[in-house]
Design goal:
Blueprint lengths: L8 H17 L7 H49 L12 E5 L6 E5 L8 E5 L6 E5 L4 E3 H12 L6
Antiparallel strand pairs: 1-2, 3-4, 4-5
Helix pairs in contact: 1-2
Length: about 160
């Protein structure tokens, strides 16, 4: 957001040159008291125009510096807070599952399911071994094994 002055340095310089030309065109020049006052006012305005230019350059430098500081601050916020506020937990590469034993929330890395399998993870709270499928189903590992055995058990022939 660059500051835009209503009066540019170029405009001030042009107006001063015009007034200086009018003064030089008069016969009075700097001999009369009024001519001396006007001459000194033009010198003063010329100094003010130079200072205006210096301040404008400095203001532009400060704006660039503030933009750089703002960008650095944004980068630091991302590093400190680890993620953008707009990012959902599902978008960060982890699945949030609930332990069937204690109800504690557990984050499971999506990479465990890259081959479409299941993963056994330990609850950090109660240390129960939990089987998590790539579809998000959660069971105690012992219950998952029993269900697997029942599904794959050969029928008994009589």
């Amino acid at each position: 957001m660059e500051y835009q002055s209503h009066v540019t340095s170029d405009r001030i310089r042009r107006e001063l040159a015009f007034v200086r030309g009018l003064m030089e065109g008069q016969e009075q020049k700097n001999e009369s008291p009024e001519g001396k006052v006007l001459g000194r006012l033009i010198q003063l305005l010329d100094e003010m125009a130079e200072e205006h230019e210096r301040l404008q350059v400095r203001l532009n430098e400060l704006e660039e510096y503030m933009e750089a500081v703002d960008e650095d601050l944004n980068e630091m916020e991302l590093l400190i807070y680890d993620r953008d506020e707009d990012v959902e937990e599902e978008d960060i590469g982890f699945w949030k599952v609930e332990c069937p034993e204690c109800g504690d929330a557990i984050l499971v890395d999506e990479d465990y399911f890259s081959d479409g399998s299941t993963a056994d993870v330990a609850c950090p709270h109660c240390e129960t071994i939990i089987t998590v499928t790539d579809e998000g189903d959660v069971k105690k590992a012992s219950e998952a094994r029993q269900a697997f055995q029942q599904e794959n058990q050969a029928p008994v022939q009589q």
